[in-house]
Amino acid sequence: MRLVALALSMILALSGPAQAEMRGHGGPVRALAIAPSGEIAVSGSFDNRAILWDLSADAAAQVLRHHDGPVNAVAILPDGRIATGGADGRVALWRPGAPDPERVEAAHEAPIVGLAVSPDGATLASAAWDGTVRLMPLNEGEARVLRGHDGNVNAVAFAPDGTPVSAGYDATLRIWEGDTPRTVTLPTPLNALAIAPDGEIVAGGADGVVRLLSPEGALLAEIETQPLPIIALAVSPDGAQVAAATIRGSVAIVDRAARETLFTLVGPGLPVWSLAYAPDGEILYTGGGDAVVRRWNAATGEPIGAAVIGAAKDPLARFTGSRGAEVYRACAACHTLSADEGERAGPTLAGIFGRRIATAEGYDYSPALTRMDIVWTPETVAALFEHGPTAYTPGSKMPEQRILDPADRQALVEFLAEATR
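Request: output the structure for the sequence above.
Response:
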């Protein structure tokens, strides 16, 4: 795909007067980055696009189209270029205003979910679900591939001295002082990672606990936020705060020195996939499952500009008390139950039972799926979650997830039978 530069009318349609919300994406906002000047931001989305925002004008300056899949990671380089990483395993480097990326690397064999720039601006690190971290020189030289994680690598960051650190679904934190890392095993699969200016490591995972570790990997503190998976982390530029976002949309603001939660931001109730502080630390930006980027006062937790009016309508509210609906909540970020609910990362599940795989109208499927001879039934959907997408539908863009409890799988298929008719 080529990048499409928006005409002025389209730019105005994507944004309006200064307000708490920036709208323009057609799917959950998966990644955010703010330039050191505080005037430019970039967001990546499940809609396969990145948007370059002019924060001084509250306007979308450019839509970046290249990736064949969700844009899960973004970064702004010291020279002003934009880096995007996609579910297609590619890294693209852009110069603002240019019609196409100036450089594209086929970096990984599975979705990229994290990008980080080294302190000296010379290296771009990418984390991916192929179990590797890749260190790509931004000027000349050969890339290094760091191997060791057993499964998805969900996040990567650089320590102040330039040491790469990675976090994985295998519940390990790896500090890469060379090709053989120092490995720290934690009690939960890890989804998110950030590093403070003094080198303290912050990790968040499936148990809702923010863990603080020394630069060498020694556990210093555990701070309980909410009993929900943490899916994004950010440290304020001065290192005083940690923001931890959850799968249900709350964001805990933690005082790092006091090792305690100060307050919790409450938005529309959908997953908050991405966080970024403004360079002065006064504003926290959040990107969520409702395709909106929001601004918050980092000192008070209040939304900036137009207030967030209550919570978004919960599409599962009418199924309160259903175990199957609770199991399905993890799927709601990417799939709708009816065809008129709008665009998301995955195809609608409306009418799924009796439908052949890769035939929902209007969705761009992975080529591997179009060659499969699977018809979705309660039995095949249950098998998908028993064995996982990697084994059952190899080549799928679907995140790897399994439902190990047979009762939960049964509850899910019974719920889908009712909800997707």
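Helices lie at 8-14, 323-328, 367-370, 378-387, 389-392, 406-419.
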